[in-house]
Amino acid sequence: MKLKHLALLVLVGAIVALVSLPRADVNAQEIISENLFTNPGFEGGYYNQGSIAQIAVPNGWTMHWLDNVTFAGTEGRPAYRPETVVWLITDAPERERELFWRDGSYTLKVFKGWAPMYAALSQDVSGLEVGRQYRMVIPIYVDMVEEYKGAKKVQPHRSDSGFIRFGVSGVGATWLDAAQINYSPTWTAENVYPFYLAMQTYVWDFTATQENMTVWIEMGSNWPYRNNGFFLDGLGLYALSTTGLANPASSGSSGSGAPAVAGPTLTPFPTPTPRADGAVVHVVNSGDSMWTIAIQYAPTLGVSPEEALPLIQDRNNNPAFVSVGQELIIVPPGETAPVVVEEEPAAEEEESATESEATAVPEQEPTAAPETEETTEVAEAQPAETGGSTDAPVASASNSICVAVFNDADSNGAQDVSTESLQPDASITLFRAGASVSTYITDGITEPYCFQNLDPDTYQVQVYSPAGFAPTTADNWAVSVTDGTALSVAFGVTEANAPAPVAEASAETADTSAETADSTSTPAEEAAPEEGGFFSSIGGIVLVIAGILVLLAGAGVVMLRRG
């Protein structure tokens, strides 16, 4: 009898344990609307704002700028009015077309040479639902050049000079008035890598407080570089499935409500410290692999992780495996990390002719008279501190970024869930302030996987395609995490030998749905994201429970017979 009772207890205990398996569901938002921006890809024409020939603005949008006004970080140098160009792709050199265009035939360039610049693009949006969350998805190429070396652009050496941030306010708010505008954290080269001479997709979610609101896209440089330029194209604003979230106060703070209980946070890699002989050496820790080590030291070497991997392997005699405590040479003694120099897409003279950039000598500051009609008078304007306000909220368990990779068979940058499956063996890395904090390898079954319990801050999500595959979407997203948010990002890849032009960055890509940012079609549905891992799959749980029950039932029968 004791054996019979024991068998029954084991059977009941197993069932209870399986049913009670802990799950931390994270519902990343689904996009439920088409693009809400008017003229998001700038295909709908443009006008000269204020009848200024040098200020071409896409229809439906408004430009703002500082003119002969200093702001924080300029060291007393005034910012001057930029030039803006709505540029037709056929007028651009071939090599520049893949860099600056994301949607259709036109892109917007905002630029100023030899002077600080602070500008913004805004649009009034109507018909918002109060309390609903909305997502801004803005691809921006930061074309800031400190100098030219031959036919190559050299990016600024200062990491704090260029900046991007978004905002939302009631209609009629004054630009740069933090009492009226709710601002995102600020993106710079200190928290986005690469920031200069690169196209990144910047993402920010906000909660609507009014039916009609103004959306702001700010960009600028506090230093008089040879060129301070920004290209924008394929902008997106989308309604999300989430409502009723706490809304930040109508100030520049990115906080929201009372702080929640903090969960565990991800720990960035430590900053490499060279030895006395100049060598940088990594001591292998538990859980390290050559791939994670390559990701960690890519910024130190000034190359991408894909380029860092064979470099580190070669410097360590191509080890078949690594063991805890093993020392790996990252930078040999007496050698310095290579300097990254971006190739100049076209000759300087050609760029000057097509974009009308300033040609004054560096010491000569612009003397353009202030344009009072279009200029916002601000005595001391200042972008938000990097990473958000100083009283940013404490992280909560719902602060997450959920990721997935799908096989984009038709290479259109959007997943057709009925025919296009999830893709295994892709590596997705989460970066914070340029340092890798976590990496996930997709299995093609249980995604989306969620990086959870994140501190409110700005992060980058980078996908590294499986061998033999190439991305069909933007492979790098810069996202802003505030308290209580759950962002979702889906990357598309296709076999490298298939004709697969990179699709335009769009918010539907982030939620595996619909067309590019200029599309008017309704995004396709996607499954509600849950935490990654096998037990987040209901099918997996059912199979496990069924298998264990069969085994336990068989064992119980045997024990009962013996009893």
Q: Short summary of the structure?
A:
With 563 residues, the chain is of the alpha+beta class. The chain has helices at 2-19, 94-100, 290-301, 305-315, 348-355, 507-510, 538-562, and strands at 46-48, 56-58, 62-65, 83-88, 106-112, 117-125, 132-145, 147-149, 152-154, 162-170, 181-183, 199-207, 213-221, 227-232, 236-243, 280-283, 327-331, 342-343, 400-407, 427-432, 435-441, 449-451, 457-464, 469-471, 476-481, 486-495.
Features of this protein?
26 strands; alpha+beta; 10-stranded mixed sheet; Membrane-bound Lytic Murein Transglycosylase D, Chain A
Question: What layout of secondary structure does this protein have?
Answer:
Elements: H1 2-19, E1 46-48, E2 56-58, E3 62-65, E4 83-88, H2 94-100, E5 106-112, E6 117-125, E7 132-145, E8 147-149, E9 152-154, E10 162-170, E11 181-183, E12 199-207, E13 213-221, E14 227-232, E15 236-243, E16 280-283, H3 290-301, H4 305-315, E17 327-331, E18 342-343, H5 348-355, E19 400-407, E20 427-432, E21 435-441, E22 449-451, E23 457-464, E24 469-471, E25 476-481, E26 486-495, H6 507-510, H7 538-562
Parallel strand pairs: 12-25, 19-26
Antiparallel strand pairs: 1-2, 3-6, 4-5, 5-14, 6-13, 7-12, 7-14, 7-15, 8-9, 9-18, 10-11, 10-13, 16-17, 19-22, 20-21, 20-23, 23-25, 24-26
Helix pairs in contact: 1-7, 3-4
